[in-house]
Amino acid sequence: MKILNLIFSALRDLWYRIAYDSLSFSSLKPDSIDVGDQESHEAVHWIPSVEVAHQVKQAYLTHPPSQLTYRLQVPPKGLFRTFVALKPEAWGKNLAGVEFRVSVSSQNNGQSISGKSFSHPTDCLKHRQWREFTLNLKKFANQEVNLTLSTATPPNEPADHAWAIWGNPAILSRRFLGKLWVFLQVPCE
Asked: Cα–Cα distance between 77 and 26 in angstroms, integer?
């Protein structure tokens, strides 16, 4: 079953690389960072490569409580896509789990949406992998928005070993069929 999951994941990643243009968050600078009483450079930073369940991704570590806000223009047919997990070193040590939340609010008309995912690899073995997290941004096409990534532990729970990571966070925009066709053409020899 693990082999099939890896194959399916690889095919899905290939589809996203072919059908979508991508703006990686690693190329963006947050407009604001709030990490409470923590040292910001320790609580929030990029890790070049993190392996979780045999899949390697560039990851943004955001130790709770943390909140990073980006101001950006949403492309037509925009989609926020990332993978969430706790660093493998935290499995079995983190007792409360972590909530990952993405919030988007328009600068123009006040519309907003949000999505969340909870990860608790100590209690739930299915959480010992990268878990895809997407948020459809189509209603914000061509608008400037504030997009906030935040992590939190459950109320009154400690943040010990709450090493929350966002794998390959990006804003995707669907390629037009013409661009997709050119990408798929194989040169004749």
From this structure: 21
Calculated CA dihedral for residues 87, 15, 7, 102, nearest 10 degrees: 20
Question: Does the pLDDT at position 178 exceed 60?
Answer: no
Query: Taking 70 as the threshold, does the pLDDT of residue 177 lie above it?
Result: no
Assess if CATH 3.30.365.10 describes domain 2-175: no
C-beta atoms surrounding 20 within 10 Å? 19
Q: Quick one: the chain helix, strand, coil %, rounded to 5?
A: 20, 45, 35
Given a cut of 80, whether residue 16 has pLDDT beyond it is: no
Mean pLDDT in the chain?
A: 90
Euclidean distance between CA atoms 105 and 86, whole angstroms: 27
Query: Residue 118 CB: number of other CB atoms within 10 A?
Result: 15
Q: Residue 181: what pLDDT?
A: 52
CA dihedral 88, 91, 96, 100 (to 10 degrees): 20
The strand pairing partners of 149, in sequence order, are: 68, 102
Confidence band for 34, pLDDT divided at 50, 70 and 90: very high
The residues, ordered by sequence, that sit 6+ positions from 103 with a Cβ below 8 Å of its Cβ are: 112, 113, 114, 146, 147, 148, 150
